[in-house]
Amino acid sequence: MSLNTPAGAHPYVPVLSAEIQEALAAHRPTVALESTIIAHGLPRPRNRRVAEELEELVRSAGAVPATIAVLDGRAHIGLDKDQLERVAEDPAMRKLGHRDLAPALAAGASGATTVSATAFLAARAGLRVFATGGLGGVHRDWTATQDESADLRLLARTDITVVCAGVKSILDVPATLQRLETLGVGVLGYGTEHFPGFYLSSSGEPVDWTVRTPEEVVEVMWARETLGGPAAALIVANPVPQKDQLDPALHDRVLTQALDACRERGIVGQAVTPFLLDHLMQHTGGASLEANLAAVRGNVSLAARIAVARSAAGH
Ligand code: PSU
Ligand code: MN
């Protein structure tokens, strides 16, 4: 599949930055980064600095970053400085899951991409490693609302390695792990026998497989590619370092309040996740934000090391 976008290419074909095109052609390491965390998951103006910092982390590890977003009806894989700034600052940026991509392109709209939209666009462009904070998943009140992030189903159909700090702890973690098993999405604990808890180093739930180095992750990716079979993502669940985690007692107390506030205000759909993340930040004196950032930084660095190890291994 060719994704080069020569002049005159159809505007619905994703645009790869020149740097990403060159890196892919030369089999140099690349890392996809999502933009919803920038536009809707972090407060302004810090979000812009974080967006730049994450790209810098990838570069300093020897890989090429590709932040992914939709701008004026075109899907971009790899943003320049002005485009990245726009994602962080433009209040008109919508939140786009995979299903929103076609309507957004057709309408000429702009939006940040969630894990589902980013993973899809990244894999389509030939990127194999993707870093985010925490995945979406099954919400705690699923039986009443049926709210399950589209991230899960998309990852069940997409060949990509996603480095994350587990799923957001605002979710029903055991139910989400169960869904991942049903959907055939592989889960590796990175340096841990427990699934991470996003703001917390551990969710308390066990994982079946543990790896300890980027090379071991690459070996699993290689084994999957060689085996073949239906497409599915591989999750590398990388815990936030214990020294950077949110105090578990504070986490549990504030999360209960946040979930109550969400229900009382009748917040539903796409607004739920940004509301809960923001509520936690406000009511932990910013501590949840620091834990979130520590998790994202760790994931981005690890993703870059995996991408570099994969290139070095020649696959
Ligand atoms: N990780 C973070 N912050 C975020 C998200 C992930 O640290 O804001 C975003 C991702 O884009 C993820 C989305 O795909 O939250 C899930 O939203 P929902 O539950 O509405 O599917
Ligand atoms: Mn949802």
Architecture overview:
With 315 residues, this protein is α/β, with parallel strands linked by helices. The chain contains 13 helices and eleven strands. Strands 1, 2, 3, 4, 5, 6, 7, 8, 9, 10 and 11 form an eleven-stranded mixed sheet that branches. Helix 3 packs antiparallel against helix 4, helix 3 runs parallel beside helix 13 and helix 11 packs across helix 12. The chain is globular, with a radius of gyration of 18 Å. The chain binds pseudouridine-5'-monophosphate (PSU) and manganese (II) ion.
SSE layout and pairings?
Elements: E1 15-16, H1 18-25, E2 30-33, H2 36-40, H3 46-60, E3 64-71, E4 74-77, H4 81-89, E5 94-96, H5 101-107, E6 111-113, H6 115-125, E7 129-131, H7 142-145, H8 150-155, E8 161-164, H9 173-183, E9 186-190, E10 210-211, H10 214-227, E11 234-237, H11 248-264, H12 272-283, H13 287-313
Parallel strand pairs: 1-4, 2-3, 2-7, 5-6, 7-8, 8-11, 9-10, 9-11
Antiparallel strand pairs: 3-4, 3-6
Helix pairs in contact: 3-4, 3-13, 10-13, 11-12
Pseudouridine-5'-monophosphate is lined by residues 34, 36-37, 40-41, 114-115, 132-134, 136, 149-151, 270, 273, 277, 292, 296.
